[in-house]
Amino acid sequence: MNNEELWQAVLGEIELSISKAQFITWFKDTVILSNENGKVVVGVPNGFAKEWLENKFNANIVKAIRNFQEDIRELTCTIYGPQEKNTSGKSIDMVKKPSQMAKTVDLNNSVSIQNITQQKQSFYQINQRYTFENFIVGENNELARAACYAVSQELGNTYNPLFIYGGVGLGKTHLLQAIGNEVIKKNPEKNIIYISSERFTTELVDSIKNQKIDQFKEKYQKISLLIIDDIQFISGKEKTQDIFFHIFNFLYQLNKQIVISSDRPPREIQVLEDRLRSRFEGGMIVDVCSPDLETRMAILRAKSSEKNFFLEEDVVRFIAENIKNNIRELEGALNRVMASCDLNKKTPSMSYVKEILSDIISSRKKKGINHTDVIKTVAEFYGIDEKEIANKGRKKRIAVPRQIAMYLIRTELDVSYPGIGELFGGRDHTTALHAFKKIDKQLKEDEKMAEDIKILKNKIFSFN
Amino acid sequence: MKVICTQENFKKAVFNTEKVTGKQATLPILNNILIETSKGRLRFLATNLEIGVFSSIGAKIEREGKITVPAKILSNFAANLASSESVSLEVSGQILIISSGRYQAKINGFDSEEFPIIPEPKGNFLLLINSAKIKEAISKVSSCIAFGETRLEFTGINMSFGEREISLAATDSFRLAEVVIALNESGLGNEYRDFIEKENSIIIPSGTMFELLRIIGNEEREVKIFIEENQIFFELDGIQLVSRLINGKYPDYRQILPKSFETRVVMKKNDILRATKIAGIFTDNRSGEMKIKINEKKLTINSYSQSYGENEAIFEEDIVGPDQEIVLNPRYVMDGLGTIHSTQVAILINNSHSPVGLKSISEKDGTVEDGYVYIVMPVKN
Question: Which domains, ranges and CATH numbers included, belong to chain A?
């Protein structure tokens, strides 16, 4: 029988011998603290209970305990505080308000810890690996890099807000983090926050739940550089947009720098409030595109030399030629080559690299996808019949999807123009060429088209 | 039991104990006052199991004994007694017979066996403080106590101990008041130094402090303070008050007390109080805002309400330091000014987002008095 069981048994016995009111008043929140050498120490919540149990009930309790444990001779009480909730180590609310104070106080002190950790977190959310120095500049991202660099040199005075958009794995995050790192390096005392819009939303929800919305706003209003990654996830979240709008305005009026990234330009973000959209568009908007071949090669060289891994020129070209869309994939391929060579103790010869990357490259291109899959996907996407696409009809409803299908078959499956003409009911190869050129041109001009193509490509590659 | 005491003592003892009674129905005996003879004196005891109080008075004891009677009946009877020399109390069975002059009452009492035992300090006193100082300190800091606060430590008054002084402080996180009371060497108990080594900050429930305030009344005397086993005891003139302490750690508020201030304005307390009250009229809700602007040796207070209009008051005052502009809640400023009793007050500002300090100005030499500071957080917009 442990102490807890013993005390429960004793309480059960005592409960019968005294009134309920008395029992509740004096025995609530009591506990046996120790039970040694015939001495029992009972913890009680207050001085009154202590006096009462020691003086009035002592004999009864000892008697009750002896029923279970005969060697008990003595009972004493001591006051122990059942710790009241919400008391430990929480910092006082008012401490958080003035930002100045937190900086002057002693770091060891618990009250200021919240402030300091906040600063540190904001510091740590920036990965020191990403700097301007190791960002490889090509035609595709020259402007974006220049804008970011200018911003990091003079916060709030050049391009504010700075809006960067571009597809996945093209270096948006690298640029954003580089701004952060540059600012930390130059002005360590500046308060900066780097956050993804998704985390921003989570923090906001938490603060609403804990009724700390004011502190949440204050935290953001104190900073000199706000970097928000992947802002497109804010779309449709009204309250987040609302709070963000206020923070944005507040910072903007104080000339604090705001940098935002997204996978598409502001006007393409669906369910974004107009006032936010116009504000995003009010600053500098730059895009990062897919890197061209030379840039991809430069990236590969830089990455491999960073890791002391030597690659032949033709190998670099081979990788760069075959992995086109995305820098992250490029890095992945390089890592794969390095790991395989390392594990198998082989030098990265052209034939070996081809072998290693064969499944990546083929999965990107062929993976058992043929033109019927493409046509089927396109037809489904535009809600027309598969057979109609190959027909002669020239209605726009059908002509445009047909051209898109031709374009996709050309780019993704590398089918020749005459071949494409053949697939679409024996058309001339110039028709296919025209379709390709038209869509290719529209892609650059029409955001809607680019969006559609992107979705279609995803659908095709997830096609089983 | 049969005793005779002066009516004055009797009334005082009843007054000092009547309020500390329990409201809970589970233990009806807590509604009673216990009257007992003890060591040649007559003691009145009451408790609600949070606070306990006993008041002992001199009396001529003819027969020892004790009884408990309902506090309300006893106090209403005592309050309406015509003044006369003495009161005699006699217990007959479960009835307390009180006679004073032409009046006599028989109050139905209860057995005293069930009455809780009120803890008494076992060791020596820790501190000896003048009651007027404590009273002033409590009434000053009590304006900042947070009531109905979920965080228990804010519902109490923090008492922290230094080598030669103690500080009382309270805050509701929007404003904070701190009084420092200097201690005399003779006022320190033998174990004081050992005590503060172990524990230098406690939280006393505000109810206990208000009861102490009531008991101190207008008389000036020495208050002995004991702290033992998570309980605090106050002893003065035969009255003893015991209370549990609030468990928990009081926030280290000293970190937010500005060490120095940039700008200092010294002006008549009534001037700023009046301007603040007027500013409070022109605000839209309780958490209104007023703006204090200090510019070219002028202090401007204004407020603006969409529904009611606006106002402005300009003072040319003794201003030292740079220009300032700060937004405050007028209600908090009023509360703070209410705790300052000098004719002139110092308004101390650092910048628009640091707390503002209010301090009193010495009547003798016009310097800013330390020892009490009331700080208000600015309103953020």
Answer: 3-79 (3.30.300.180), 123-288 (3.40.50.300), 293-365 (1.10.8.60), 371-461 (1.10.1750.10)
Beta bridge partners of B39: none
Sort out which chain B residues have CB atoms less than 8 A from A78's CB and list them.
Answer: 229
The residue of chain B nearest to residue A24, with distances taken between CA atoms, is: B26
Task: Grade residue A85 by pLDDT with cuts at 50, 70 and 90.
Answer: very low
Q: Which band of pLDDT confidence, cut at 50, 70 and 90, is reported for residue A210?
A: confident
Rg of chain A, C-alpha, whole Å: 35
Report yes or no on B119 lying in a domain: no
Give me the residue from A21, A87, A99 closest to B152, CB to CB: A87
For the full predicted model, state whether its pTM sits above 0.80. no
Do the domain assignments include residue B141?
yes
The residue among B229, B254, B279 that closes a domain is: B254
| B288 and B200 in a common domain | no
* B197 in any annotated domain: yes
Q: With contacts defined as CB-CB under 8 Å, which chain A residues touch B150?
A: 86
A215: left (phi over 0), alpha (psi -120 to 50) or beta: alpha
Residue A110's pLDDT is 36
Q: What is the pLDDT of residues A253-300, one digit of tens each?
A: 888 888 988 888 888 777 777 888 888 888 888 888 888 888 888 888
Which of B63, B93, B114 delimits the end of a domain? B114
Range of the domain at B314: 259-376
DSSP A263: S
The Cα–Cα gap between A312 and A325 comes to: 22
- Cite the DSSP H helix spans in A345-395: 350-365, 371-382, 386-390
Contacts of B1 (CB under 8 A, 6+ apart): B35, B36, B37, B63, B64, B65, B66, B67, B89, B90, B91
Average pLDDT, integer, range A184-202: 82
